[in-house]
Batch of 2 targets.
Target 1
Amino acid sequence: MAYAFDFAAVWEYRGQLATGALHTLGLITVGAGLGVSLGTFGAVSRAWKIKPFDKIFTVYVELIRNTPFLVQLFFIFFGLPALGVKLGEWQAAIIAMVINLGAYSTEIIRAGIQAIPRGQIEAASSLAMTRPQIFRHIVLRPALQKVWPALSSQIVIVMLGSSVCSQISAEELTYAANFIQSRNFRAFETYITVAIMYLILSFCVRGLLNRFGSRYISGRKTA
Amino acid sequence: MMMEFTLWDIVRNLLTGLEWTVGLSLTAFILGGIVGVLVLSARIGRFLWLRKLMKGYIELFQGTPLLMQLFLVFFGISLMGVDVPAWLAAAIGLTLFTSAYLAEIWRGCVEAIPKGQWEASSSLAMSWVEQMRYVVLPQALRIAIAPTVGFSVQVVKGTSVASIIGFAELTKTGGMLANATFKPFLVFGLVALGYFILCYPLSHFAMRLERKYRGSGAH
C-alpha cells in the first residue's frame, strides 16, 4: 500500500501560490531596501563613533542578533499593542524584517567601512572633495562592494525567515501553503511544492542581487 | 474559571520551556555535528557523484526555510504511516538543517588549507586519510572553532521555529502564556530575554575565539 502522490490537488491552487510568492517577494523587497538603509546608518554610526547612535546601535545589534526572528515578530505583533501601538500583520511583518536585517547589515557593512584605509579618505579630502562626496564615493561604495556577497546572503536568509510571518497571518507563501493543505489534505505535496518554490525564489533573488551589485555597486558608470 | 498567574508562575513555566529549548538545541547541534562530518567527508571526498549529491543536499537546506524543512519532516514521516511526535520531527529537522550548514562551514575551513600542503603530503606518500589526519584537520579544526560556535547561536534561535509544529519549547510556552495571561508584552519580553541569555554568551565566546585565532597569525 504505497502512498499515491497527488500533485494535481496542489496545481488547483496555483493562483494562491503565485500570489503568495509575489507577497513574499514584496516583503523582502521592502524589507531589504529599508533594512539595508538602516544598516548603513548603523554601520556609519558605529564605525565613526557618532554619539549617541553608536551606543544605541551596539545594544540594538546585540539584542536582535541574539534573539529569534519569530520572537521579535510576536513581540511586535502581540506585545506592542499593549503599549497602544496597533499594527496590521503586514506592517508588523515589514517592521520585524527591517529591524532584523538592519541589525545584521549594520555589522556586515561596518566591517566593509572599517576596511577602507584611512589614507584614501585623507587623499580624497586633499583633492578637495566635499564630505558627502567622500562618503558616497570613497567610503560607502567601496564598503558595499566589499561586503555585497555577505549582504546578499543575509537578504536571502531573511527572505527564507519571512516564512514564519505566516504565524501572524500575513498572507505570504507559507500562509498560502498552510491554507492549501487545510483544503486539499495533501500536506506533503503542498509543502514540497512550496519548498521548491522557495528554492527557486532564493536562486532568483541571489541572481538579481548579484546583477544589481555588479551594475550599481561595483560597476563603473559608463556614459 | 479564570486562573490568576503571578509573575513567578509565568517565569516558572517559561523556565520549563527554556529547558526544552536547551535540550532541542543540544540534540540538534550534537547530532547535526555528527551528520555534518559525514556530509563533509562526502562533500570533499573522492567520488564525484557523492560530492555533487552533497552539494545539492547543502543547497537544498540553505535555500529553503527551516519551517518548510520541519513541515516536510513532520508530514513526510507520517506519510509512511508512522505517527511522529512534534519533538522528534523537530529534532530530525533541526539535525539535518544543522548538518548542512556545519558541513558547508567546515568545507570552507578545509579548503583554506593551502594546496601546496596537500601536494607536499602526497609527495610524502601519505594516503588521503593520513593527509587529512596529520596535515589538514589539525589546522582546519583551529579555524573551524569560532564559526562553529557562532553557528550554534543560529541553532538555538532556529529551535523557536519548532514551536510552529507544536513543540512546547520556550516560544510555544510563551505563546500559550501570553494567551492565558493577556500580558503579551511582558511574556514575549521574557521569552526574548531567555533566548538572549542563551545566545549572548555563545556569540561573545565566538567573537573572542575569532580574535584569538586571527591574532595568533596562524591558520
Target 2
Amino acid sequence: MVENMAITDTIQFFVTCIIDTLYPQVGEAAVRVLRRAGARVEFPAEQTCCGQPAFNAGMRSQARRMAEYTIRVLESAPGVVVLPSGSCAAMIRHGYLEIFAGDSQWSSRAESLAKRTYELTEFLVDILDVTDVGARFDGLLAYHASCHLSRDLGVKHQPSLLLRNVKEAEIVELPHGEECCGFGGLFSIEYPEISRAMLDRKIHNIRSSAANVVVACDAGCISHINGGLHRRGLSPCVRHIAEVLEKT
Amino acid sequence: MPDYFHTQIREALANTGLQEALDANAERRVEARLKANAALPDYPALRHRAHTLRASTMARLDEYLEQFIAKAQLNGIIVHRAADATQATQIVMEIARENNAHLVAKSKSMISEEIGLNRALEAVGLRVVETDLGEYILQLRGERPAHILTPAVHLKRADVGKTFHERLGLPLSDDVSALVAVARQALRMDFLEAEIGITGVNFGVAESGSLCLVTNEGNGRMVTTLPPVHIALMGIERLVPTLDDLALLLTLLPRAATGQKITVYTSLIHGPRRPGDPDGPRQRHLILVDNGREALRQSPLGEALLCIRCGACLNVCPVFREIGGHAYVGTRGEISTYPGPIGSIISPGLFGQSEFGHLARASSLCGACKEACPVDIDLPKLLLRVRAGGIKIEPSRAKQKIPRLVAIGVRIYTWFSIDVRRFRLAQRLLGPLSHIFAPRSIWMHLPAFTGWGYSKDFPRPALRPFRRRWMSRQPGISIISESVVSVVRESGDKPDQLFETSGNESLDSHSLATRFAGELVALEGKFTFCSRSDLAQRILQILHNNNIGSLLSWESDQLPTSLIEAIRAAGVQVSYDLDPSIRAGLTGTLAAVADTGTIVLTGGPGRSLFSSLLPEVHIAILRTSDIRESLPQVLRLIEVQSAACVVLISGPSRTADIEMTLTIGVHGPRELYVLCLDE
C-alpha cells in the first residue's frame, strides 16, 4: 500500500455512481472532509461506475468493460484513489483482480490501481492518520457496519474511531450492527422477499437502539434501509458518515 | 416452468414455527462457535494453517489418494472407487447381496444422501434405518435433511412428538428426554440385528490409511462395531495427509460445528476385526466417491472442496436463517442435498449449473460465511463464480441463470457507463424525469414488481448530480480531459466555498487562476494546477495519452529548470528547431488574462512561436502570479510592448464555417493544455 503520503499529495476522488446520481451532497461532504483533513482533492471527470452491478450479476464481460474503462480513467492521474463506499472500493481492490486473473497485462494494471485505492474512513485513519476531523454533531449515533467494508475490506474500527471524536455526539450500540441489512445489490431485486425479511430485522434493531441517527459508509445500505424506513412510515434516519463528519 | 425456489422461499418465510427454530439455531450455534474459538490460543493462525493444508492436499489429491488407498488396503479395508452415484449405490447393493443382508443401519452421512442410497437400497427390498436421531426423525417424517450437520434443525420438539405419536404409536409428548429414550429403545434392536452398518467418513488420513469419524450420539460407534459388515462412504476430497494434520482439523471442526472442543466420540478406524479381537466387523469396505468432485477440483470452484462439513456457514448465513435448508430447491423443485452458502456452490458444481445455479444468486454476499469458515474458504468469491457460469465461467445467460430483465438492465447500464458523455446524458434525463414522476417527495414509491419496490421506496435522483456540481462555474473548478480536475485549495480562514458560487470574488491570484481556468475550459482548453516537481510527469502523461513521442519546445532556459532534461530522460525526443512532423509543442507563457482565458506569449530568442502553432497539441506553462484580471493590464506589460511578436491565445483553434457546426482543431493546435504553477 501507499506509504508516507505527504499531506500535500493529491488524491483522486471516485465519487461512485450511486452518490453521484442519488446523493451528490454526500460526495460534496466527503470532499470537504478530505480537504479539511489536509488532502488535496481532484475529480477525474470521466469516471462513471466501477462495474459492480454487472460483476454482481455474473456478467463478466460487461463488468470487464466497465473495469477497463475505470482503470483507464484512474490511471491518467497519479495519487491515491479514495471512495466514499466500501463495496466500490472492494470492487476495485478485489473484484478487479478476480476479473483480470490470468490476463497478465490487465492484471498488473489492476494490481497497481488496487494498491492505491482506499475507502474514505480507511484513508483518513490509516493513511492520513486523522481520527478527529473537527466535526460536531449533536445526536445519538449508532453505527451500521456495511458488509463489504467490514468483511471484504476488513475496515472495522476506523469508522467508529472517527465517530467517537465527533463532538457532542454520543455513540450508542446498534444491536447486531454487523449483520447484513439485506441489500446485496441485485439480491434485493431478485429475492425481494428474503431481502425484506432481513431488512425487517435491521429496522427492528435500529428501533430498539437508542439512536436517532444511524451512520453507515455505504450508499447501497443507506438507500435500502432508509427506503424501507420511509415505506413503513418511519423516519429515514440513516446518514452517510461523510455527512456527519462534515458538520462543524 | 414454475419457480419452485421462490415458492419455497415464500412458504418458509410464512412458517412461524420454522422461523423460530432457525432463529434459535442461529443464535445458539454462532455464540457457541465464537466462544469455543476464543478459547483457542491463536485461532486465526490455526485457521490459516488449515486452509493451506486443505488447499495443498487438494492440489496433490491423486498422490494422497494413492497413498491412502494403499495403506487402507494394507490394513485390511476393501477399497472401491465409484465414479458416480449409480456406481456407488451399485457397489453397496452388491455387498449387501453378497452378505444376504436384510437390514442396514446407517449413521448420518451426507454423501449417502447425495447418492440417493436409501431409495436405491429400499428399491431392492432392503430395510434401511437411520440411527442418528435427527435423521431417524426425518426418516419417520419422510423428509430430507434441512442442514448439513443438524438435519432436523427445522423442527420444534412438538413436531417431533407429533411424529413419534403418529408413526410409532406413542402418546403425544414434547418431552425431549422422553423422545430420545424412545429412539434409543427403538434403535437398539436394529443395531444388534443389522447385517450392514453404513457411515460416512469425516476425514481419511493418507499416511496411516485411517478413517476418522466424529460423532456424539454413539450410533456411529454402534454401526461400525456391531454389524458384521461396515461400509464407509467417503468423498474423495475428505483427505488429510498425516495424523498431525488430522489433529489440526479435529481442533477446528467441532468448535465450528457445535462449539464443542471435541465430540464425544472420535473414532480412528483402520481395519476389520483381527484374530483375537472380541468385536468389530469381519469386513470393512471403503467406497471412495467422485460424483463430480474431480471435475469440480479442476474448475474455478475448486476451493469449495476444502470444506470440512462443519455447517458454520449455514448457521451464520442471514439468508439461511430466513429460509432454512428445505427451501434450497432446484429448477425441478427437488431439494438439494447441500443447502446454505457451501451448498449454493457445490450443488451447481456437482449436480448441475442449470439445475441449481440460481441458488448462488440468493445471497447478499455479506461474507459472514467466509468469516465463519474454519478453513477460510472464500465463499463469496465462489458464489460470484457460480453466477458467472460456475464450473465453466462463460458469457451465457442460460448457464448463468440471470433473470432476463436483470441481464437487459445490466447491458443497458454498461452501455451508458463506458462513455462518460452517455453517463452524463443519462443523469441529465434521470433527474428531471424522476422529479416529474415524484414531484413531492425525495422518496419514490415504486411498484412491487420492480423488486426494489416490494418493500421499500427508492431515493429520487438529484437534479444536479455530484459531477455537475463539481464542474459548474464556481471558484476553482477546471478540467483536463485526461480526467484531472483541480480544485483551488482554499486559504485557512476562508469559509469552504467548494460548491457555492461566491458573489465577492477576491482578486488574489488563486481566485484569478480559477476565473482564468473557467474561461479557458469554456473555450475547450484544458487547465490544471501542477507543482514544479510534477510538471515533467504531467507533460509525459499528456504525450502518452495522445500517443506522441516527440516535442517541439522552447529552449530549456526559457522553461522551468531541468524540465527538458527530465523529459528527454524519459525518452521523449525534444527539438528546438522547426519540424512539422512533431505533434506536440511546449512553451512557457508571459502572462494570462483571467477575464477571457487568454495566455500571452512573446516571441524572441529561445521562444519559438511555431511551437505554439504547428503541433496538434500545445502545452503551456503558466504561473498564477502572472495572471492578470483583464486584457488592458496585460497590454501594459513592458515585454508585450517591446517584443517583436506577441501572441494571445484563447483556447485551441476552431471553426464553425461548415453548417455552423463547431469544430475544434483547424490549422492551429486542436488541444491546449495549460499547466499552472502555483507561484
